[in-house]
Amino acid sequence: MSQISNLTSPISISKMLAIGIDIGGTRTKIGLVDIENGSVIDVLISPTETKDGHWFLANIAMAINTFKTYAERNNKQLIGIGFGIPGFVFENGVVDSTYGFLEFMEDYPLKAIIERQHQLPCKLDNDARVVTLGEALYGEGNGFNRVLVLTLGTGLGLGFTINGKLNEALAYAHMGGNITITSNQIKCYCGKTGCLESLASATGLCNAAERINWRTKYPDIPITAENIFKERNNGNPEAELLVADFIAYLKIGIDTYINLFAPDKIVLGGGVAKGLANDLEKFYSNELLRPYKNYKVSIGVSKLEEQAGILGSAALFFIS
Fold first, then answer.
1. What letters, b where the CB count within 10 A reaches 16 and e where it falls short, cover 288-301?
2. Which tens digit of pLDDT belongs to each residue from 272-294?
3. Do the first three CATH levels of 2-133+307-315 and 144-301 match, i.e. the same topology?
4. Where are the domains of the chain?
5. Engineering a disulfide at 53: which of 99, 104, 147, 159 sits with its beta carbon 3.0 to 4.6 angstroms away?
6. Which Gene3D superfamilies does this UniProt record tie to the protein (predicted)?
7. Are the C-beta atoms of residues 92 and 30 closer than 8 Å to each other?
8. Rounded to 5 degrees, what angle do the CA atoms 168, 101, 181 make?
C-alpha cells in the first residue's frame, strides 16, 4: 500500500472527518477527508483486489485502521466510511452487481460487513455518482445548480446532481454511458453496438488504434489513450484522426445528455479528460435546439482528478 501525503504534516482541519474509498479498475484509493472544507488530508492506495473478498477487505482495513488511529490521537470525529462502487447498490448497502468487475461482489452486503468490522457507519453509491458529488461540492461544479459529470476512463461513467445533491436515491441511470450513438459493428460489453461507452472511453480509443494496426505501425509507442493524445499533439496524422473521431462521438453524447438533463455545468473527468483540455470549444453546439430559449452550459475538465471519487465518497455523509 502506497501513501501520497503525510499524516504528520501540520494541517488545519475541522473536527469532522470521513473516509472516502474509490474502487478503480486497477487501484483502490482510500482517503481521509475533511468534509467541511473539502480537503483530502491523506491518501493510501492499494491494487484493487477483484477476485478474493477476504483480501479486498484486508487491504482496505489497513488504511481504515490507520485513519481511525489518526482521528483518535488528534481528537477528531470520524463519522463514517463512504464507498464508490463500480456497479449498482441498493439502499440497504447490498451491492447488487459490479457486472463481473469485482467477482466476489455479487449480492454482497458490503455495508453490513464494514460496519461490523470497523464499528463505523458506512454508505455506498455508484462510483461515477460519487465522482459527480465530489465535483459538485468541491470541484468544477461548485456554484452550479445542475451538474453533469462524465468520467472518461476504462469505461464512461455518468452522474448528475441538483443543488449539490444526487438527483435520485439510487443509481438507476448509472448505465447512462451505454446509449447508441451510431450504426457500426463495434460491440460494447453491454451487448449493444454503436454504443457511446465503446467509442468515447480509453478502451474505445485504444481499440480504435488496434483497428488501424497501431502496434505494427508504431511498435515503439504502446497503445494507451495518453500516448495517442500525445501523438495527436505531435502532429501524427493517424492519431489526429483517432482523436477527432473520439471527440465527434463524445460530442454526440454530450448533445444528447444536454437534452436529457439540461445541465448548467458539464465536467469531464477520468484519465482521458486531461487530453481534451484544449478541445472544449468543439463540444459546444449553438446551432442545435436547446432545452429552453436562454439555455447556456459551461463545459470544463476536472481539476480534482483522482481526488473527486474520494471526496464524493466521503461526502455521502455531508449531504445526508
1. eeeeeeeeebebbb
2. 999 999 999 999 988 889 999 99
3. yes
4. 2-133+307-315, 144-301
5. 104
6. 3.30.420.40
7. no
8. 60
